[in-house]
Fold these 2 entries.
Entry 1:
Amino acid sequence: MKIKHTLYIILLTASLIPLYIFASVMIVQNNKNTKSMMQENLRFISESTISSIESFCEARRDTINMITQYEMIQDAVHSSLDGSISDDDSISYINNMLWERKIHCDFLQSLFIIDTNFNIVASSENITASTSDYFAHADSDSLNGNFIISDAYQRLIDGEMTTVVAAYSGIFDLNTQNIIGYVVEEIPTSYFDNYRSNTTLWENGLLYLIDNNNFFITAGNPDESTSDSLTDANDNAIWQKITEHLSCTNHSNTSGQFYFNVSGNEYAIYYAPVHYTDWIIFITIDLSSYQKMKTAYRILLGTTVLWTSVVLLLVHYLITKKITKPVHLISGTLENVQLQKNYALRIPYDKNDELGNLSNKINALLAYAEANEVHQQEYQRYLTKKTQLDPMTQLFNKNAIENKIHAMIEQANDTHTRIAVGFLDIDNFRDYNTLYGHQEGDRVIRFVASILKENINGIVGRNGGDEFLFCLAAVDSKTTIENEIRTVFEKLQEGLINLETGERMSIPCSIGIFAENGSQLHYSYMVQGADAAMYQAKELGKNTYYLNYN
């Protein structure tokens, strides 16, 4: 029952109460953040659209400024200003160049050059002098030669009145830097519908791009094709609110936001100027969609909380039904294991569920604990053996071989049998390191170690450096020892392949063996005898052995 009550407390304090608090906080926080998010999204969309239009303006500026630098165009403009007769071939060439540029830019209506008297010097098509009338009546500030895209105006093209804007920049005399004319690109306002249609707005969002005369460059929602008028009554009402606000504020060089209500719905407006023009962009969003989203969010969150509560209650019921018995079985078994120190005990629960899996894991752990002691003993023996071996040769190291020989001498004393101790020293070992390097010297040591290990019928160890120590127990005759030593020498004389020269080289060694019957022998006596025998072998000229057989 304690577990059941605890689960009730956990359910309330760790699940349902935090869930309800979380839901309440989320509703309040959502009310605060969603509107702010929509406003920030409105600003971001507006700035992104403005950036796209300004990038287009900069591309036109760079193209037009490049044309103004052509010497042939400069000469043609000078001729127009002077009233002199221009070279027909030159004018024809310029006209063709402008035509080629026009046909490669599908958004261009026309491309022409005028002088400061607003006479047409050259053009991409046959146009009348009235085409330049717009510039003759333009504000002088817009004719200072800096790049600009004009307000919208209309002219007759192919029998129809077409609304266009002019992108133009001054032609400056290369010597005096005085302005002498303009390069003009005419662009239909319908081209800017692309920017409106490519702008992603919230439901009922609108985009207005107007010039300094409040003429629509493009206007409407992204799905509408109309660019120069508003046909929807609600859109017109929104525009009236915008114009009322603009009449009370100076917006020409600033950006900002404001809010108003139309037909019971609240709208947010973001406006900003477009660089290189006298245009203003306005983007609106209908905040009533925010109210719908807020209501939908509350319904979704409420439904989620309700279903989560039902699920938590169901989970609590299943847990309280299935967990109590197996938990008691598990805890009881573990308590008995602790009291009895008996790892052979097992939990008697084999259901195919999570606690059954846990019981199996604990039973497996008990089985592991049972086997672990045996494993630990085996591992200890492995570590003991590992500490006795020389890393390079895998023979017994100095301490281990001494202990082994001590034990063999004691056994020989007990059984009164003959024992032999031998020393092997590699002759002139330093020459290997000097001539071939330490890596080759290490190969020689490992080679000698392998020969001794394979051919000495006893124990072998590395005494250190290039010295080896071995011991033969229960030696029955002098001939037995000599046969083993001769075999060792034969193998050493066969040698190994030198990795540097590729030639086989023998390994000369001096071996001394001291053999005596066991009675009162001791380690230092036997080792000194073997050491003396080895030096006797060296005095005999090295690369031989000497056996002192008592």
Entry 2:
Amino acid sequence: MSRPRRARVPVTATLLTLGLAAATLVGVPAAQAAPAVQAAPVAAPEAAADEPFSVLVFSKTAGFRHDSIPTGIAAIQQLGAANGFTVDTTEDGAAFTDENLARYRVVVWLSTTGDVLAPDQQAAFERYIRAGGGYAGIHAASDTEYSWAWYGDLVGAHFASHPANQQATVKVEDHAHPSTAELPERWSRFDEWYNYQSNPRGDVHVLATLDETSYSPGAGAMGHDHPIAWCQDFDGGRAWYTGGGHTRESYAEPQFLAHLLGGIRTAAGVQDADCGASLTESFEKVALDSNTSNPMELDVAPDGRVFYIERDGRVQIVKPDTGSTVTALDLDVFTGKAPEMRIRKAVAAVLTGLVLAFLAAAPATAHSGKLKLTVAGDGAGGVTIQAAYADGHRLDKLVRLTLTAAGSGGRTVGPLQLEPAAEGQGSYTTGPILSPGTWTVRVTAPAPHSGAATAKVRARAPQTPSLAPVARDVSPARADRSTGDGAAPGWWRPVAVGVAVLLVVALTAPVLGRLRRGRS
């Protein structure tokens, strides 16, 4: 059945055209049991000056019976004596009549289990809540009345499982609520920690969650969002629940007692509490400006005004007092596809290629122990590497090839595994190098003639973005040529590039002129 609730004033959050995302609090996991020992005297929190009221503690069980129930009753009675409210107790469902329930501001369900009320008693309790009564559930109150849908909505979530009793950390999410106001942000305590059949967040206001990384939650773990205490305005009344309270020792802990006192008092309605702050239904999407064109950036001023800028250069202000949008500034921005810019980049690329064409390095040779390394090439067609041993033996295999860019901001390419094109051949050609500039080539040879050598090669502008090494047979005669492709560096290449640049400039000059005249 749908969950009836008290009407609330919606909290509005603002977003441009696309609306708002509702924020929610993160919940804490439930607790487990502690060893049974004699309960210590209860240290009640300082009393608050309010009109007296009455509390009914209901502890009937039709399933598992917690041995902490008597200790819990005694603790609540001591809280009442110290804080100005009277406490009656019962395990008789016959106490749930309209006349009897009207005597109490709140009914505390203390570790009840199973089906504890007859249908007419259930109906009386529903009428009591709808008339403005309060409900406070402790621990196994969530292990109660599984077939009573209204009660399931009232308690918030039903028990599913629990691991062994252990120490765990409770993360307090709301320090404004009286039941969590005196608790530390991370509250470490020993208890029996419940896993629930569903996560109530969004339907209830989560006050605290369990940090499942601080204990072993077992097979029923709820994950990072594990609510353990929450409250809600429900069907005309008030509801508060805590998953703690399995152990007798719980009712001797000053912080747990403060937690209980705040829950009882707020459920009774004698102390104000906001239990709708994080509910999904408490938020409303409001479009500030539905006549936007293409907003790019947005910011909110301390006075509530919303500033955003359109792609066409208009700086807009949404005024919260009137709901109107005004243009504060109109910036001169360029919104075209920039053909002139593309032409300039093309010319620059041709000029760069012309300069780099003269930078092809002569073969570089390096010796390191038994290994001799010869590197040649311009990077555009790959780098040719010839390695041999000083004693004249061919190098059958290169183990590692590392290319390192020279200078600051350089990067390493590799290590790359290279295999020879044929047995006994010691020449290899890498794929094109992405970035022009000076590169350091280091080759390491395997046993039995282990050694390493380093040489430098200057790379031209790349022709393809691939860095994958390609092994091929390159003769020593070809490898000694500076171009690395077997062809001598002809004098005509720089001339051809220069002619190409002149042609590009001649063809683009009229276009650039027309563009300038069109913008003026």
